[in-house]
Amino acid sequence: MFTVDPKAASPLVAQIVEGFREAIQRGDLRPGAKAPSIRQFAHAQGVSVYTVVDAYDRLVAQGYFASRPHSGFFVRQREALARLGPDQTPVESVNHNFDSMWYLRRVFENRALRMKPGCGWIPGDWLFQDGLRRSLRSLAADNAELGGYGEPKGYPPLRQLVRDLLAEQEIAVTTDQVLLTHGSSQGLDLVARCLVRAGDVVLVDDPGYPNLLFSLRFLGAKLVGVPRTPHGYDLAALEALVIEHQPKVFFTQPRLQSPTGSVANLAHLHRVLQLAEKHHFTVVENDIYADLDPEPRPSLASLDQLQRVVYLSSFSKTISPNLRVGFMAAPPDLLEDFAQLKMISGLTSSEFSERLVCGALLDGRWRKHLRGLRDRLAAAHQRVAQALENKGFEIFAEPKAGLFLWAQHPDIHDAAELAYKAAEQDISLGPGHLFTPNLTPSRWLRFNVAYSDEPQVWAFLKEQTKAA
After folding, report:
1. How far apart are CA 448 and CA 428, in angstroms?
2. For the segment 305-317, what is each residue's pLDDT rounded down to a tens digit?
3. What is the pTM (predicted TM-score) of this model?
4. Which phi and psi angles does 89 have, rounded to 5°?
5. DSSP state of 34
6. End-to-end alpha carbon distance in the chain
7. To the nearest 10°, the Cα dihedral for 52, 53, 56, 57?
């Protein structure tokens, strides 16, 4: 059919995509024909499985391939291909059966790889494990009644505690304005499905939060990226995008953002709210790293008091990601819509998990644990930032808090290619294209400072970047 050339100037992924495109356009691959399996093609061409995964991902996204569960990949019918726009993106089709969510699960968050500098969670031994064990013992001793489905909005004592925690951040809500969710990801999904319809324009951070980007693509939203800066947003670009596109929603992460680690300053928060008021769009504030921030900062929700802002956060980053307990606060009418959709799509969230989290938060050592965790992350930031700079990397922002540093190197032209090579050496990197609204190639990498102190990681990067 065609052969890829590792010595060619064009990246391997681009060669594979172009090779299949040409084969389809020439008629060598007819509509409905089955494409080689990922492993079969990788073996035949002598390339990494991860390289083929990315190429097939792009072919699905561009409308050349269709994925059939448990069957493989097939050339799409001609009527589907005819809908391709001038940028080779399907005009109507947004059904990502395979695409980047599969890639994300298998590569980007692959727990099978031993070294994880690109992952998005905190090491288990950094979490509040002792407090969680004490909460579990207390729950068992109380012989708590765990029959039934629990309250639709979540365990009432935890909702009351969330109300009080939000009050400490100067966000005034009633308990009825708090909805517990199965992690912040469920909260984002509920908001997206309530507020966004296929074809709606939504603003997102660029780069931004991958799980959210995949969810919005699945819903058929038109994603428009708002460029991040080390201090928040490119405000001129934001205003121009708002005027041009008149978005329905802006999904954003002002504090300790993933992947850049940047923090939006007060003036930027005010400007976002001014534009939202003037142009009538909702702002969805994803504040999942609030507990990792040593500085008391205003949030969009505290400035707006939930007039146009929906606020989401989670306890998964600091207590346990396996418990999947998050929460959201919103204007009363919207909150009721979110609660109804939560019940329709999955009944209630786990009261057992919510009771465990509530017990951990009421533990007298919880706040001490948070202070220690912040100190530990600050020290890791200093070490990892210094190591990156010593290897010739440019760092986007240095928050000295949170989980992430966003960095690029002049010798790295496609971070995805580097990530494939790293995976073959048992290293999971965070390639930048996963964080872009349109999965465009990127030079940038996300580093989790809690997982980046591995000598083998630095040795690999030194070899790949010709660092001294």
Report:
1. 11
2. 999 999 999 998 8
3. 0.79
4. -100, 135
5. B
6. 42
7. -150
